[in-house]
Amino acid sequence: MIFNRIRYEEPLFRPPSEANSLIFQATIGCSQNTCRFCGMYKMKTFRIRPVSEMLAEIHSVPESVRPHVQRVFIADGDGLVYPQAGLVELLDALSTTFPRLTRVGAYASPNSLTTKTEEELTLLQQKKLRILYFGLESGDPDTLTLVRKGFAPAEMLALCKKAQRAGMKLSVTAILGLAGRARSAEHAKATAAWINELSPEYFSLLTMFRRHNDDYFKEIEPLSYGGILEEALSMLQELNPQRTILRSNHVSNFLNLAGSYPKDRERLIETAQRALAEARRQPIWFNEVPDYQEEYY
Q1: DSSP per-residue letters across 130-178
Q2: CB-count burial class (<10 Å; 0-12, 13-18, 19+) for 237
Q3: How far apart are the C-alpha atoms of 254 and 73, rounded to whole Å?
Q4: What is the pTM of this model?
Q5: Which of 194, 234, 248, 272 could form a disulfide linkage to 205, CB 3.0–4.6 angstroms apart?
Q6: Which residue ranges form the domains of the chain, and what is each CATH number?
Q7: For residues 230 and 249, what is the distance between their CA atoms, to the nearest angstrom?
Q8: DSSP bridge partners of 228
Q9: pLDDT by residue (tens digit) across 51-106?
């Protein structure tokens, strides 16, 4: 019944951990949307929906449903970029409308984090915006230049530390295979070093796949299944954050990892080593380049 009352402009994306969240699409598309590897929002022109429109949607949720809503996710690809005053108003309305609300989450690009001061982020956190999903993609500056991320690793690290000081939880993602064969080793090592420095609450691995990004695939030499496993193992061998939960439960992944640092570090490495050893016994598959169908994503 809720979803007949809430307007969505497809495609609509959310992190795996927001599967049970009620989604409000406060922005359409992504304010950055220049990353060459990412095809999620290429079909959309970015815009911010008016506060009045969003409030009407929030208030349209039936009274009988409201007590069951505990988590809300603010879409689209860059919810944090919503203007501060309007975002505060939306968060207040969410808390008032849903009495059992415990957490609001949103994607946050580096660009959107530049639009908020530490004090503004602190206020948002106090109003239950508790977790930001941040796409690092790679800690390697050359790879970030290649994909046109628009920010250097050190810049993104400073922005994420600002969010941490404001009390925000961060869920950071990086992409296996993003750098292709040429910079796979550098990508793995630099990404692990970046995560070690930040120690975000969550770190998630995705695997590079085709979706409105064929031009980028033409410029790199894509990794095979075996190459992706080797890159994952290299990253895990360098990874040693103070306190971070690792997940690789995105649909693009074929190596499933789950554990907490530092206690599960050796087990995670051993899991990747076993997967790599098994893959090497299947040379045809090991050397095959993944060719995912975009409609699955």
Answers
A1: EEEEEEEE-S-HHHHHHHT-SS-HHHHHHHHHHHHHTT-EEEEEEEETT
A2: middle
A3: 26
A4: 0.92
A5: 248
A6: 16-287 (3.20.20.70)
A7: 18
A8: none
A9: 999 999 999 999 999 999 999 999 988 899 999 999 999 999 999 999 999 999 99
